[in-house]
Amino acid sequence: MLTQKLKSLTQPHWIEICSLLGVGLGVLIRLVQYLSNRSLWFDEVALGLNLLDRSYLELLDALDYNQAAPPLFLWIEKFAIETWGSHEYSLRLFPLIGGLLSLGLFYRFTQNFAQGRARPIAIFLFSVQGYIAYFASETKPYSWDVSMGLLLFMAVISLATLKPKLTKLLIAGILGSISIWLSFPSIFVIAGVEAANILSLRLWQAPKTDLKDFFLRRLPLYGSWILSFCGLYFGVINQALSGTDLADNWAGRYPDNLLDIVWLFDSFGRFFYRPLGFFGPADGVAMVAFITGCILLYRTAKLRLIYLSSPFLVTLLAAFLHKYPFRERLVLFLTPFALILLAEGIVFWWGRWRRKPAILGIIGIFMVITLIFMPLRRGLHGMIEPTSLHFDHVRPTIRYIDTHWQAGDKLYVLPGAQLQFEFYNRRFKLPVPDIILSQLQNIGIWKVSDEDLESHYQELNNLKQTQLKDKTRVWILLARKRPKSEEAIVEQLNRLGKLIERKQYPGAMVGLYDFSS
């Protein structure tokens, strides 16, 4: 059995203890983030509004607000809000389950694919790294991309024999057919690992009788996978691509041609920043460790390297064919496989500190501190102070307005906060006739141009002469702006009216102004 061939030697007791501690830490980090109950941000409320306004069948159509998600994920989310309500806990419960499940699956995965100290290192990184942990508490399917990727990897690799048991074929067939509807990139893991199976079995050298047995058992399996994928692609994905701007948004993320090496190197570098979560200069150090791990496995365990790299290669092929962007959260499902290779490289450099020349030892210590202790520190900080990870925190601004609302008040909502306001006002129910939505295009999050500021000033000045004329209490809701952009807008507000009070939340602000003068 292939998994037995790949499985490392019996691990020392301390490695098992450290691995379990890493899993436990990951559970705590994910639960704390979930229970901190930050506001739904822009993308989450965009998906949430689709869930609220559509039936189960309508969720198969192209979604509003330029969104896309697997149908099974949408249906489970729809069931959750119908059962427990449209609050953050119900919307994020299923992603949390996916995040917690991925910890257990990765623990099991490392038993076969990581050796010695590389195992607890990989588990600790998987547990604490920001993006991997973060998506366990966001209303998006990315935590399930990771879980299903690991589950499928282990299911398909168990078929690495010419005559696999029918029960294993049945499990892989059912799991693969369903997972495609829960996680779009599942198909890349299935294709990659099965291709690695074929390479490991050396089918081109197998006798004809063995080939016949292989295909007789495999054809129903392949048929179920292909049928499921075709149903999803032509029934759902095509509609999403034609009914949204996603294809146009993704166009700049694809290579220009099959020989676009610059794109390949750029994508490789970006991968270590997002989704792996190593910020400069740690991303460069992580690349060195990763390449080291690849070289080590190439020399000592080629089969492991083939399997771990197979999902990467298939996903890159899809990117070169302009079928799937190799960018950020869309490739989060590849992080478990990358972390194994990264951990192998860290262990190699860690072992240099007692050897000559001394410079190698210094490099090893620097790498351990950069790639293990710094992410661990950030993960612990996020667990101790979960509010430090909050952003676009609009819910408390609307609650504050609702609590302090008086007869005759008006509310002016800037573009960056409008989608979240639409979602949350279904809960707070501020009077619609007293709400004014800005008609401007959403202006930059990072930097607001002079033209944007002038347009904003003119719109608000016109409102001051009409709908807001002589109003002594006008609420202003602002979100999705970095501090400098926010302050530039506030400076203009202060020129138009008298500030009565201002409440600040992470990534959101509410101000009360007197426009009567």
Describe this structure in words.
This protein is mostly helical and 517 residues long. The protein has two domains: 387 residues, no CATH class; 120 residues. The chain contains 21 helices and five strands. Strands 2-1-3-5-4 form a five-stranded mixed sheet, sandwiched between helices. A hairpin with a 2-residue loop joins β4 and β5. The mean pLDDT is 90.
What are the SSEs and their pairings?
Layout: H1 2-6, H2 13-36, H3 42-53, H4 71-84, H5 88-113, H6 118-128, H7 130-134, H8 142-157, H9 166-182, H10 186-201, H11 208-243, H12 246-251, H13 261-273, H14 282-300, H15 302-320, H16 335-350, H17 358-384, H18 395-404, E1 410-413, H19 415-428, E2 435-437, H20 450-465, E3 474-479, H21 483-496, E4 498-505, E5 508-514
Parallel strand pairs: 1-2, 1-3
Antiparallel strand pairs: 3-5, 4-5
Mean pLDDT: 90
| Strand order in the sheet with the most strands | 2-1-3-5-4
- The rough form would be described as globular
Tell me the helix content. Answer: 55-70%
Low confidence ranges: none
Number of DSSP E strands? 5
